[in-house]
Amino acid sequence: MTPPVLSAHDLACERSERALFRGLGFDLGAGEALWVRGGNGHGKTSLLRILCGLSQPAAGEVRWRGELLDRMRERYGREMAYVGHANGIKDDLTPLENLRLAAELGGRELNESNAVTALERVGLGRCLDLPARVLSFGQRRRVALASLLTAGAVLWILDEPLTGLDVDGVAMVEGLIQDHVAAGGMAVMTTHQPFAFTDITPKSISVGE
User: What is the span of the domain harbouring residue 134?
Assistant: First the structure.
C-alpha cells in the first residue's frame, strides 16, 4: 500500500479556550483532493492554517511524506501553495509583477512566458499591464489563483477559492483543480458552495460538528 503524502493525526484546535475540533485526521495521496466542510466559525480556516504550518495544533501532528511537518518546513514550503481569504496581492503592481513577486518570495525563478500563460488561463490576458488596484475583486482573486499555476507545487491548499467569482470563474477554478489532481497533484479546499467536479471525487471531512 502506498503511504500517504500528507496526513493529519488526532488534530485538535482551540480558540479562546474553546475547542473548535478534536481527534481530526485524514490521509491524502497523489491524485487526491480533500473537501473540508463545516459552518462559519467551526474551524475550517484554522485547520488550513495548521496544514500550511502557519499555526500549531493544540494536539496532534501533521506529516508530509511521512515526516513531521516541523522537520520538513523548507521542502514543504517549496511543494505547497496556499491561497487564503486575502488574495495577498499588491495594489500598485500589475498581475504580472505580482506573480514575479510571489516567485521571488518563494525563492523560485519565473519564466515570463509561463506567467503570461497562467494569467491568460485565468482570464486576465487583457489585464497584464493594469495595476491591481483597478481590478475588480473577482479579477484580483484570479491573480491569486494564477499564482498556483506558476508555483510548481504538488499540494494546493485553498480557503474559499470560489469567493468573488462569477459562474465562468467558478467553472474555471473547478477545471484548474481537476487538471491539477488528474496530473497527480493534491488539493485541500473549503467552500460554502458545492464543487461541480466531473472527473474527480474529493474525500470529505467535517470540522466542528
Answer: 6-206
Q: Is residue 97 part of a domain?
A: yes
CB of 181 within 8 A of CB of 124?
A: no
How many structural domains is the chain composed of?
Answer: 1
Cβ–Cβ under 8 Å, residues 60 and 205? no
Q: Please determine, for residue 135, whether its predicted confidence score (pLDDT) is greater than 90.
A: yes
3-state secondary structure of 173: helix
Provide the pairing of β-strand 186-190 with 33-37.
Answer: parallel
Closest C-alpha to 26, from 204, 208, 181: 204
Residue 177: CATH number of its domain: 3.40.50.300
Decide if 1 is inside a domain: no
pLDDT for the residue numbered 1: 62
pLDDT range class, residue 209, cuts 50, 70, 90:
low
